[in-house]
Amino acid sequence: MAQKRQHPNDSTTAPRYLGLDFSTQQIKAVALDNDLREVYSSAIGFDRDLPEFKTDGGCHKNGDRVTAPTSMWVKAFDMLLEQMKSDGFNFGTLLSVSGSGQQHGSVYWKRGAREVLREGLNAAQTLFDQLNTSFATPNSPIWMDSSTTAECQKLEELLGGAQNVANVTGSRAYERFTGNQIAKIYKESSDVYNNCERISLVSSFGASLLLGDYAPIDYSDGSGMNLMNIRTKEWDQQALDACAPELKERLGPLAPSFHPVGSVSPYFVQRYGFSPDCKVIAFTGDNPASLAGLRLQEGDVSVSLGTSDTLFVWLKEPKPALEGHIFVNPVDAEDYMALLCFKNGSLARERVRANVGIQTWEEFSALLQSTSPGNGGNIGIYFFDTEITPFAIGEHRFDASGKKVDVFERSTEVRALVEGQFMAKRVHAENLGYDIGPTSRVLATGGASKNSAILQVLADVFNAPVYTLETENSASLGAAYQARYGLIYQSHKFQEIGENLPAYQLAAEPNADAAKIYTPLAARYKRLEKSVITSK
Ligand code: ADP
Ligand code: XUL
Fold first, then answer.
1. pLDDT for 420-454, tens place per residue?
2. Angle between helices 178-188 and 149-158 (to 10 degrees)
3. pLDDT score recorded for residue 13
4. Measuring CA to CA, which residue among 358, 362, 355, 325 is closest to residue 342?
């Protein structure tokens, strides 16, 4: 886990913006100066710095039930602030703070907790000492939990099917989505539910700590609950009723992701020297915050080529589908974003690399470049692990006539893998309403974005230029950008937050005949992919 502590050099009184990221394995702070340059960062890792909670990867796994101790996050926040203090960080310079959190996870505040947050916090004591008894259950279910299949089925039944749930809430019912998690808690531990006065997401929980009151859930992270109508941006009563009674009052209000929700509570002013005017800007989910950190614009797609591959798509007019998620856009509440997760990313690329008998990415690139775009009509689909988008498994190879074949020649195999992975991304983005336009850009991040041969295929398949951006932590950076944007959104667009932000590097441009090759090939890919899908 990366722990990068820069020395703050912060005797300065120049304005600062703070982004916090409450992620699965750590909590991180990034401070930016007035030009939005990073001047400080620091992190607390749950497993390493808080061994008393005995987490592994920041959570406790019990079969398909996966939770994290809520008060561990509180204690980590105490430690992070203490660490910043001992680094000499000048909290008094902060104009605003925002944050991001792992999506879907939920916190159950016990009856009476609001009073403690609002009135009862003593600046001489830690938050942990004062809040660790404020939760109706000590364990927060997190996004890795997949134990709520029965609740998902019930929600889809009651709302008239999976597509209807997607049309209203942006996604079909997913096990990790918060509504289904709440339904399970209500069903299995009604005392916890009855004893709970407010349910926060991890993001709004972080904001609540700073605010000294319950912070609203923001539209973007609220879109990951199967409970919010993504068009009206209000709770959907039918979905609420399907999950648990009297849920609306437990969820509280919703707010745009970049809105100020108040000023920091006196606790932080007294204990750490925050300015009483320091604003708290709504916190959001880590994926929406990353979209802000990457400064995506209308028409853009970002592709993270990591262990698995992830796609963010900026959408004007979303078409919810049975695969992928539509969230309200975190920097423009009139627009939307899509999130698509592809489990078979770099690990599948590594596997094919080994299967064709080579060790290095240079050899892999050479094989890729020895073949022509379109691969002579050969198409491959490689779902070594059960794929999420779409729900399917297996290796499938088709020749130019559409006939299934068992093997490809080595270089054909490498190109079939890379083209297949990128055509899947294009097809599923288009399914959700994405249209490649003349100004569309593809922004590549993650381990494989270092590979220019792979990026050339990406540019060709999307028929758009591919750019890269050096970012280690787009979520906390995006949260810090949101901290700034929350102060100026009434007179500026998000894209106007700063003038000297890190530049995108052009990495690949599409070949002249890219559209001619990949538009029909992607249509063929789509049909072939349908033929290998196992129904859910
Ligand atoms: P994570 O998703 O865990 O943060 P990264 O974004 O760091 O992962 O990506 C790691 C992956 O990047 C490795 O599994 C490796 O397969 C892949 N990778 C690293 N360098 C290259 C390269 N030059 N070409 C293709 N893939 C690469
Ligand atoms: C998104 C998701 C994860 C979490 C973890 O739907 O479940 O990306 O946000 O950070």
1. 999 999 999 999 999 988 999 999 999 999 999 99
2. 110
3. 80
4. 325
Report how far residue 140's alpha carbon sits from residue 379's, in angstroms, rounded to the nearest whole number: 43
**pLDDT of 259-287, one tens digit each?**
999 999 999 999 999 999 999 999 999 99
DSSP string, 178-189: HHHHHHHHHHH-
If we measure between CA atoms, which residue out of 500, 99, 478 comes closest to residue 293?
478
| Pocket flag, ligand 2, residue 103 (CB < 6 Å) | yes
Atom 7, ligand 1: which residue's CA is nearest?
447
Helix (H, G, I), strand (E, B) or coil at 25: coil
What is the Å distance from ligand 2's center to 103 Cα?
5
Domains of the chain: 5-288 (3.30.420.40), 296-468+504-536 (3.30.420.40)
Residue corresponding to tokens 């080595």: 410
User: 78 — phi, psi (to 5°)?
Assistant: -55, -50
Q: How many CB atoms lie within 10 A of CB 343?
A: 16
Q: Which DSSP state fits 13?
A: -
Ligand 1 pocket, mutate which of 24, 290, 346 (most atoms under 8 A from CB): 346
CA of 449 to the centre of ligand 1 (A): 8
Query: Chain centroid to CA 93: how far?
Result: 29
Does the C-beta of 75 come closer than 6 Å to ligand 2? no
User: What six digits make up the tokens of 519?
Assistant: 């538009």
Please tell me whether residue 462 adopts helix, strand or coil conformation.
Answer: helix
Residue 325: phi and psi, rounded to 5, are: -130, 140
Tell me, in angstroms, the distance from the centre of ligand 1 to residue 302's CA.
16
Give, for 391, the enclosing helix (H) or strand (E). Answer: none
Q: Give every CB contact of residue 33 below 8 A, 6+ residues apart in sequence.
A: 14, 15, 16, 39
Q: What's residue 504's pLDDT?
A: 94
Residue carrying the six token digits 């070949």: 511
